[in-house]
Automatic annotation (TrEMBL):
<keyword id="KW-1133">Transmembrane helix</keyword>
<keyword id="KW-0472">Membrane</keyword>
<feature type="transmembrane region" description="Helical">
    <location>
        <begin position="139"/>
        <end position="157"/>
    </location>
</feature>
<feature type="transmembrane region" description="Helical">
    <location>
        <begin position="88"/>
        <end position="111"/>
    </location>
</feature>
<keyword id="KW-0812">Transmembrane</keyword>
<feature type="transmembrane region" description="Helical">
    <location>
        <begin position="45"/>
        <end position="67"/>
    </location>
</feature>
<protein>
    <submittedName>
        <fullName>Uncharacterized protein</fullName>
    </submittedName>
</protein>
<feature type="transmembrane region" description="Helical">
    <location>
        <begin position="9"/>
        <end position="33"/>
    </location>
</feature>
Length: 171
């Protein structure tokens, strides 16, 4: 494996981890709004909205760089300049390593969300309220969606790898 390929795989893995870690930004925004008691003035709401949009834009740019512009990052940070050898003696294809990374990330997402979902679901069932009246409905839905995403990553890792590789070669 070339040093360049190693860095590309590492940066794409970090990009995938960032992508699936930033999913919680939107629910946290809505949770922040709903946790404010009483009335909220327009200026604070606007500031909150601008900060959330700025955060999402920055995350999208960083994730795009890490997933699709890895060559540019390697070049700008001069990551392959300080190596004496050009190759690392590993005979695994880069797509295999990326597929394994996607499977691990999917498993971590599933492992992280499943206990939270079960805990929130048990609390909901104990409250004997309607879903629309339950105050944690948003988090219940959020953890359910994360479980689905983790499961899809586990079962469709090769398709995600093909998409990332295709987009990387087009850019």
């Amino acid at each position: 494996m070339l040093i360049d390929t190693f860095w590309k795989l590492l940066l794409k893995t970090i990009g995938l981890w960032l992508l699936f870690s930033c999913i919680s930004v939107v629910p946290q925004f809505f949770s922040m709004i709903s946790s404010i008691n009483g009335s909220i003035d327009f200026q604070n709401l606007l500031l909150l909205l601008v900060m959330s949009c700025t955060t999402i834009i920055i995350l999208v740019i960083i994730i795009r760089l890490f997933l699709f512009k890895t060559g540019w990052i390697i070049e700008k940070l001069k990551l392959k300049d300080n190596f004496k050898e050009e190759r690392i003696d590993i005979t695994i294809k880069s797509t295999t390593v990326l597929t394994i990374s996607i499977i691990i990330i999917g498993a971590l997402i599933l492992i992280e969300s499943l206990p939270n979902f079960c805990s929130t679901l048990i609390t909901f069932l104990q409250q004997k309220e309607l879903l629309k009246d339950y105050p944690q409905t948003g988090w219940l839905i959020y953890h359910f969606i994360k479980i689905i995403i983790g499961y899809l990553l586990l079962t469709n890792a090769k398709n995600f790898t093909k998409f990332i590789e295709k987009e990387s070669h087009e850019n």
